[in-house]
Amino acid sequence: MLKDSADFRRVASGTLLIVAPLLQTIAVIIDPGTWGDDREAVSYGDNPALAQAQSALYHWSYLLMALAAIALLHVMRRRAVVFGHVAGTLTALGYINLSGMLMIDPVEWWLGQRNTPEQTAKILDEMLNLPGVVFGFQMPWLFFAIFGMPVLLAGVWRAGFTHWWVPLVVAIGYGTSLVVPYGPASVALWGASAVAIGSLGVKMLRMSRTEWISHYPTDAPGRTTPDSYANTTA
């Protein structure tokens, strides 16, 4: 497999689509804030080890989700090509920015050990509301991930690679998580989204090499075809 670029990309893409959302689901399950006070300044004091573990899991989940978004573009090489590349790029940028925001966690932990939760929240609000932080790291970039993935999956559906319920489940899961308090409900919402996204990964892993390279376009001169691609990777 490692000597064949087609199989490597197929397995890597499928694995990313399973592992990335799974890490997010594990993170919300072990997060002390899910089952208690959702403020990091408090949940870190409740269980420092789990608080650090969930933060790291979120970080790697979002980084891998950025790669997973790019991996989905392969199945959109024949239909919704421009749409896929625009949505995929913006979604990847959104997840990268989400990952970067996780660095605020250790700051909040440190402040929480030396201030009341209310004082910590006030200090953080002053820090995070700086224009450079808002427009450089938060707005509108974070929403590219939250809304971008369901939109990208809608393109995958339009490309004929998945069923309509996959983008719908992810849209409901991500969208509802914006309006309900962070807690046990988040486990169900993100767990359902992980199952939907993971189903695409399972489908990729079950594909044959021929099925994978069949997604390369064949109708335009000078563009890669399955046969020419097979010859270059044989």
Can you count the beta strands?
0
Task: Determine the fraction of residues in helical runs and give it as a percent range.
Answer: over 70%
Q: Order of SSEs, N→C?
A: HHHHHHHHHHHHH
Q: How would you describe the shape?
A: elongated
Average pLDDT rating: 89
**Which class best fits the helix and strand makeup?**
mainly alpha
From the N-terminal CA to the C-terminal CA, the straight-line distance is: 11 Å
Hey, roughly how much beta strand do the residues contain? Answer: under 5%
Largest sheet: none
Task: State the helix count.
Answer: 13
Low-confidence runs of at least 5 consecutive residues: none
The rounded Rg comes to: 20 Å
Explain what you see.
With 234 residues, the protein is mainly alpha-helical. Helix content is 76%, strand content 0%. It has helices spanning 5-30, 32-35, 40-46, 48-71, 81-101, 104-112, 117-128, 131-138, 141-158, 165-177, 184-206, 209-213, 226-233. The radius of gyration is 20 Å and the shape is elongated.
Quick structural gist:
With 234 residues, this protein is mostly helical. It is built from 13 helices and no strands.
List keywords for this structure.
elongated, mainly alpha, 234 residues, 13 helices
Topology:
Elements: H1 5-30, H2 32-35, H3 40-46, H4 48-71, H5 81-101, H6 104-112, H7 117-128, H8 131-138, H9 141-158, H10 165-177, H11 184-206, H12 209-213, H13 226-233
Helix pairs in contact: 1-4, 1-11, 3-4, 3-6, 4-5, 5-9, 9-10, 10-11
